[in-house]
Amino acid sequence: MTKNHNLSFVHQFVPATAPGRTPLLLLHGTGGDENDLLGLGSALSPGAALLSPRGQVLEHGMPRFFRRLAEGVFDEDDLKTRAADLAGFIDAARTAYGLPAPIAIGFSNGANIAAALLLLHRKALAGAILLRAMAPFRAPVTPNNASTEHNGVPVLVLSGAMDPIVPADNAARLVGSLREAGHAVDHETLPAGHNLTQADMSLAKRFLESQFIANEPA
Questions:
Q1: How many domains does the chain divide into?
Q2: Which pTM does this prediction carry?
Q3: Residues paired with 50 in a beta bridge
Q4: Does 163 participate in catalysis according to the annotation?
């Protein structure tokens, strides 16, 4: 694992060992850090490069990617600013490490900022897996490159039927907003709470294999 201290986010970078495999951008949940999802990334796409930044906001000492006003109530102005900062980091890291656009794997708070990237900075990601994500904005938003044609990307949203944090109607609104933005969204609701299960792993791995790995050069 390596770190480039000239980039704007504290992060971990694991170089690829499988040439041609799409890199993963790992985005942790509240209280996590740049090490949290490295094992998950390696399990989901063995040999892929892993880029894992640490959120720059602290909430009671716990790292997050953007501020919130209360549980489930986001500071949307801060979210837009932080999403732009993260998009800038991705662009700089791609140059520094020689990477194509990554697939975001985000959990909870990390999934929420990944959703904001999909809506506001459409060129930043090649795809995304959003684990226990909420709709990041209350009203429709305009992407920063709205005047530039850009096809949507494959997105998998995995929700928990018993999730106490993400109501079903909120997850449905998220899926609707992503589809309206042109992304190809698969949505599965699992018999789970906010924590991840083996079913999440299986579905995420199947999604990566069908949407990306199967199309990679041998």
A1: 1
A2: 0.94
A3: 14, 24
A4: yes
